[in-house]
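User: My collaborator sent over this chain with a note saying "see what the structure looks like." That's all I know about it. Can you take a look?
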Amino acid sequence: MDFSTVSHLWEVVLSLIFGGSLLFAFVEGLAFKVQLLHRALPYQFVLMLPYVVTLIALVIISRRAVMPRALGIPYEREEVR
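Assistant: Without extra context I'll predict from the sequence alone. Here is the result:
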């Protein structure tokens, strides 16, 4: 693996982390607005909103994931000469 591949992998990882934190921050700010507009809604539900949205996003992303073909196949060690 050369340096350019590693740098692209780090870009992907950092964009996922940064994107996830932006999503969480946006929904948390939205939750405060919802709490101001709908006072009849218990505040526990409003505090729970960013976490629920993050879990839903993780579920949606994980459904598109492709598992390795060798997953579940036992590893058989070769004979040592």
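A starting point for your reply to your collaborator: DSSP finds two helices and no strands in the chain.
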